[in-house]
Structure formats: structure tokens, C-alpha cells
Specification:
The protein is globular. It contains nine helices and nine strands. By secondary structure, the protein is α/β, with parallel strands linked by helices. The longest helix has 22 residues, at 193-214. The protein folds into two domains: 2-173, HUPs (Rossmann fold); 186-274, Pantoate--beta-alanine Ligase, Chain: A,domain 2, CATH 3.30.1300.10. Strand 5, helix 7 (151-163) and strand 6 (169-173) form a beta-alpha-beta unit. The strands form two sheets. The chain has a six-stranded parallel β-sheet, sandwiched between helices. It binds pantoate. Pantoate is lined by residues 28-30, 58, 61, 128, 131-132, 150, 153.
Length: 279
């Protein structure tokens, strides 16, 4: 496995990994890796001839009062896990490499970027689409792997790939959960033992939405109300949103249809967590 830090090195190493006719997979990450990320690596390994992963805590996707400076950075452990799971190349650029002084070009997927997490975190998805476009240009993958936990990110990146004609396939892998249902997230590291218990309410709320939908209820408002009742049982949890949306457009749906996305975001203490399920 090679680790490269500059864009020029990444471009030439990825060109070699692609060779004449090899399929290159890319797993973009911000590090602080967990089984969710590693499931993406394994999916990439299974579907591609060669695999590159990026580790870059992207400043442009954090708001001014968010956790950019304290976001967990576990570079050596991350590299060991990626090597163990068969990654060929790690691209770990500095902020100066990715955003040299004076850089002022951004990629914005209009409309959809302002919904769900985009509504709560203005500018977040502009940062995501900008850095992911750059990573796609630099590494030139045939397939790129993302987790369904970030359902809004997936919808926006799918649209970006389509709108900007990126010649690659976006592969979305299922949410990985702890045995008790907690969706894996790098931010789970921030939770105290008590908060971790409280955080399980997100999974319970989504379970309730599934249960209500399975009973034949078609009103999204009723599902949302049922989820909010569950979430209200944990006083340490402050709801950001509970929504039922179209998974492509992220627009609210009022009548639950098969494949609608039920999504929750909530603060557990100071930590904002998200989770979702396709109904
Ligand atoms: O999902 C993430 O970890 C990030 O948003 C991504 C896609 C690596 C871009 O920084």
C-alpha cells in the first residue's frame, strides 16, 4: 500500500492503478474509520481490481460553529485498517493541497442541497460536492463507494454525477449498525456512556416509523408524530428533524410510498447524529 499526500502523486499513482484496463474503486473518507467505512472498502475490493481511499477532513463542509478542529483524527490507525483490508493507495492531502490560497471555485447542486441536513447545516453540501468533485478529478475512479447512512449526501452526489457527467458509477452500501441498533458514525466517539444509551432512541424512532407504515398507515404526518413521541422520551435528546422524503429529491412526501426515506437527525448532548431507513 502506498500513501501519497500531493495531488500530483495521487494523479500518477491512480493512473498506474487504473493501468490499461483495471477497474479502480475510490472510497472517500474523513478518517476516524469504523466498520461502516471498512464495509465500503470491502465492497470496493469485491467489485474493483484496485482500490484507493482518501483521508481528508474537509474544512469546507463544516460550519463556523461545528466540530472541524475537534473532529477525530486517527491517521495511523486508519492506515493500518486500510492496509489490512487490501487498499492499494491512500490519498491524504493537506488542506493547502486541496484548497490553495485563492481557490474560489465551488460545486453546488442547487435545490436538493438545502434539504434535510442541508437545511440544518447551511453550506455543508457545497463543501461535500466540491471536495468529492476534486477527489473524482484527481483519482479518476470507475466506481466510488458511499454509505447509505448519509442518505442526503448520497442523493446529492448521485445528482452531481449525473448533472456533471462524471464517468463513474456511484455505489451505495447499507448502514452498518452496532448489535443494539446504533448506526456507526465517527461522531459516536464523542458520546459518553450515558449519551450512547440515549442515542439508541434514533433507531427506536425509525423502528416505530417502519412499524406504523407496515400497519398500513399512509400519512407521513402520522409516522413523524409517532417518531417524535419516541424521541421525546429521551430528555437528553434534541430533535433537529424527522422527515419522510423522496430519496432522490429529498422533498417531503405526504403519502408514504414504497421506498420513501424516513430520516432523523438529533443532538445527543452536543453531538449531532443522523440515521434513516427506506420504508
Ligand atoms: O461522508 C464523508 O465522510 C464525507 O462527507 C466525504 C464524502 C468523505 C467528503 O468529505
Amino acid at each position: 500500500m502506498v500513501i501519497v499526500k500531493t495531488i500530483a502523486e495521487a494523479q500518477s499513482a491512480c493512473a498506474q492503478l487504473r493501468g490499461e484496463d483495471r477497474v479502480l474503486g475510490l472510497v472517500p473518507t474523513m478518517g476516524a474509520l469504523h466498520e461502516g467505512h471498512l464495509s465500503l472498502v470491502r465492497a470496493a475490493r469485491a467489485a474493483c481490481d484496485t482500490v484507493a481511499a482518501s483521508i481528508f477532513v474537509n474544512p469546507t463542509q463544516f460550519g463556523p460553529n461545528e466540530d472541524f478542529s475537534k473532529y477525530p483524527r486517527t491517521f495511523d490507525d486508519d492506515c493500518a485498517l486500510l492496509e489490512r483490508d487490501g487498499v492499494d493507495l491512500i490519498f491524504a492531502p493537506t488542506v493547502e493541497q486541496m484548497y490553495p490560497a485563492g481557490a474560489s471555485t465551488f460545486v453546488v447542486v442547487e435545490g436538493v442541497s438545502d434539504r434535510l441536513d442541508g437545511a440544518s447545516r447551511p453550506g455543508h453540501f457545497r463543501g461535500v460536492t466540491t471536495v468529492v468533485s476534486k477527489l473524482f478529478h484527481i483519482t479518476g475512479p470507475h466506481k466510488a463507494f458511499f454509505g447509505q447512512k448519509d442518505a442526503a449526501q448520497v442523493a446529492i452526489l448521485r445528482k452531481m454525477v449525473r448533472d456533471l457527467n462524471f464517468p463513474l458509477q456511484l455505489v451505495v452500501c447499507p448502514i452498518v449498525r452496532e448489535a443494539d441498533g446504533l448506526a456507526l458514525s465517527s461522531r459516536n466517539r464523542y458520546l459518553s456512556a450515558k449519551e450512547r444509551e440515549h442515542a439508541l432512541v434514533l433507531h427506536r424512532a425509525l423502528g416505530k416509523m417502519e412499524e406504523v407504515a407496515a400497519s398500513g398507515e399512509r400519512s407521513s404526518a402520522r409516522l413523524i408524530e409517532a417518531a417524535r413521541e419516541i424521541l421525546a422520551q429521551e430528555p437528553g435528546v434534541r430533535v433537529d428533524y424527522v422527515a419522510v422524503v423522496d430519496p432522490e429529491t429529498l422533498k417531503d412526501v405526504f403519502e408514504v410510498t414504497d421506498g420513501a426515506l424516513a430520516a432523523v437527525a438529533a443532538f445527543v448532548g452536543a453531538t449531532r447524529l443522523i440515521d434513516n431507513v427506506l420504508l
